[in-house]
Amino acid sequence: MGKTKVIQLSDAQRQELIDGYRSGKSHAFRQCCQMILLKSEKRTSREIARLLGCHKITVNGWVKRFEAEGTEGLKMRPGRGRRAILSAATDLNRVRAAVIRSRQRIGLARTELEAELQNPFSTPTLKRFLKKTIAASNELESD
Questions:
Q1: Closest Cα to residue 75, out of 9, 16, 5?
Q2: Are residues 94 and 136 in the same domain?
Q3: Whether 89 contacts 133, CB under 8 Å
Q4: What is the rounded distance in angstroms from the CA atom of residue 56 to the CA atom of residue 130?
Q5: Cα separations in angstroms, 137 against 15, 112, 130, 140
Q6: Could you tell me if 130 and 96 lie in one domain?
Q7: How far apart are CA 23 and CA 59, in angstroms?
Q8: How far apart are CA 108 and CA 114, in angstroms?
Q9: 5 within a domain of the structure (yes/no)
Q10: Domains identified in the chain, total number
Q11: Are residues 96 and 137 in the same domain?
Q12: In this predicted model, what pLDDT tens digit does every residue of 32-61 receive, in sequence order?
């Protein structure tokens, strides 16, 4: 069994991690704060992974990131996840025109948009885009 790495926390760091664990906005951030707090209590990565339902490599990765960047390093960075297929800024007018041309047949509008944008997507994607942009435009009109 390897040597257990222990993180030495100052009182300010410990309080910041406790606050992040108790009232952090995302679940991932709260869990990372908990990992670091548990690591400072001389627990092994394997034990922490078992408690939190992740892998010990994940624990070690967050420990390294905390050591390099502090508490800010535990927050999710922007740009994660899949990029949107349809964008309100660039595709809204095209989508509106296609839907107006074939109001009762959303599948036909989708096929037309796929050919125009040269990017395949599903009918549910088009429906989600329409709901999201309609909701956003309704909020702007109510303000």
A1: 16
A2: yes
A3: no
A4: 42
A5: 42, 24, 10, 5
A6: yes
A7: 21
A8: 10
A9: no
A10: 2
A11: yes
A12: 999 999 999 999 999 999 999 999 999 999
Q: Can you read off the two tokens belonging to residue 129?
A: 């885009």
Distance of CA 64 to the CA centre of its chain: 21
The 10s digit of each residue's pLDDT in 61-71 is: 999 999 999 99
**Shared-domain flag, residues 69 and 99:** no
Looking at the domain assignment, is residue 30 inside a domain?
yes
Domain extent at residue 132: 88-142
* C-alpha span between 43 and 35 (Å, rounded): 10
The token duo for 118 is 């040269």
**Token digits for 113?**
């948009």
Flag whether pLDDT at 1 surpasses 60: no
Q: Which two tokens stand for residue 75?
A: 């927050």
Same domain (yes/no): 19, 70: yes
Interatomic CA distance for residues 123 and 95, integer angstroms: 12
